[in-house]
Amino acid sequence: MAVDYAVIVVYLAGMLAMGWWGMRRAKSKSEFLVAGRRLGPWMYSGTMAAIVLGGASTIGGVGLGYKYGLSGAWMVLTIGLGLLALSVFFSARIARLKVYTVSEMLDLRYGGRAGMISGLVMWAYTLMLAVTSTIAYATIFDVLFDIDRTVSIILGGAIVVAYSTLGGMWSITLTDMVQFVVKTVGVLLLLLPIAVVKAGGFAEMKAQLPTEYFAPLGIGGETIFTYVLIYTFGMLIGQDIWQRVFTARSDRTARWGGTAAGTYCLVYAIAGAMIGTAAKVLYPKLDNPDDAFAMIVKDELPMGVRGLVLAAALAAVMSTSSGALIACATVANNDIWSRLRGLTSRAAPEDGHDEVKGNRAFILAMGVAVIAIAIVLNDVVEALTVAYNLLVGGLLVPILGGLLWKRGTVQGALAAVGVGGVAVIGLMAAYGILAEEPVYYGLLASLAVYVTVSLLTRPTDAAVLAHWRERLAGRGSDDDAPVTATSAATLGQDAQAR
Question: What phi, psi does 39 have (nearest 5°)?
Fold first, then answer.
């Protein structure tokens, strides 16, 4: 294992070195939070693929393949489809807004007042996403070094917090590019062909496994539909995803780079399911399907290659963890803390160094909180399900409604967030946290309330909509001072007074 350990140590040291390098580039708020909005298509597509394909997509995707066969690819396929939809239909408009958070977009579209409650929901989602990714370090470091769960979480979490705090989005972008390459080589080019060969080839796999393992819909139509609601729609509105869209240097980069990343996700989904199916042939009686990835890596890969593939798993977890962490900190600072203090970038201008220092402090604080929660939390599946249900049930309708329907109003948006969120929580209490009904009915309730209240209330003021259209067209935006809650609300109030 000495060679494998050396590969992992070099990889982790490289992550910290890139954090230090990124610190030297991040001299302004824009550089720190969205990499100066300067990423070209290659770097943009690589980092976007890295953040959406985390530990759940890698270890969990292989586990689903072990349990259901090729149809186990559907979870990651719906992630890829969501990224494709975001890139083709919405990414160009989102990038042109020149905002930092989803809540700022809502304030801009509705004239203020919608950001705080949406910020709280988004913060809860990104926090739990970071926590669940951090917990995954325990599995990987246990395979690598056979060390205690708490120590594993602290070790993996500390490395991510360190490079994220040092250089913000620049450090995360650089590390994500390395992680993208490592995942591609480790999972697609090494583990996939080796696993299939070790299982005797595709023909032997078909001969040894039941027919349903090769049925496209074997996992079940209702499960696939739930994946679409949670993951495909979740890709359209998550702060962690939008913050990457904000890094694109042009509309074309956001559209075509994201399309390439989404296509890569589809390939990755099929690869994970194939690896899991091969593992079913090799280890037919595993108690936990999620152990399939670790077993096939430990037993079937040669020295050195094993270390690279484990580094790929570590890369998958780190990319999602760091992306969720900076998203969580950005929302906490810009959408919650600044609003509570009654501050905006226009009302209390600061130089770039101060803004970077403040955002860096929030990443550090959120990182420490994430590690602490990860140590004490046990049922992460339920926690993440609550976060995703709240995200989709509460925020999907007002966000997509704001982008697609000009008649939507701030009263309708607030009602949709409130009713959708309460409905999801109530239905989870009634049906169970892991039930599928809460997100179905919560989403329908949010849509009904949004449309009804919007039609019964005064249309959004023409001045607010005019400013919104200007921002969508890429005009009237100042990257150092984007429209925030106070300025958007003031614009709406002034227009109504006139």
Answer: -75, 135
* Calpha distance 141→132 (Å, rounded): 15
Query: How confident is the model over 274-295, as pLDDT tens digits?
Result: 999 999 999 998 888 888 888 8
Residue 2 exposure: Cα atoms within 13 Å on the Cβ side: 0
List, for residues 468-489, the tens digit of each pLDDT value: 999 888 776 555 444 444 455 4
**CATH number among 3.90.226.10, 3.40.50.2000, 1.20.1730.10, 3.40.605.10, domain 1-339+355-377:** 1.20.1730.10
84-88, 300-304, 319-323, 366-370, range with the lowest pLDDT: 300-304
Best CA proximity match to 327, nearest among 351, 362, 361, 357:
362
* Amino acid letter, 168: G
pLDDT in tens, 221-274: 989 998 998 889 989 998 989 999 999 999 899 999 999 999 999 999 999 999
Tell me how far apart the alpha carbons of residues 332 and 404 are, in angstroms, rounded to a whole number: 27
Q: Which residues contact 276 (CB under 8 A, 6 or more apart)?
A: 61, 62, 63, 64, 65, 66, 67, 69, 72, 289, 292, 293
Q: What are phi and psi of 23, to 5 degrees?
A: -60, -35
* Structural domain boundaries in the chain: 1-339+355-377, 381-479
Taking alpha carbons only, the member of 160, 154, 191 closest to residue 318 is 160
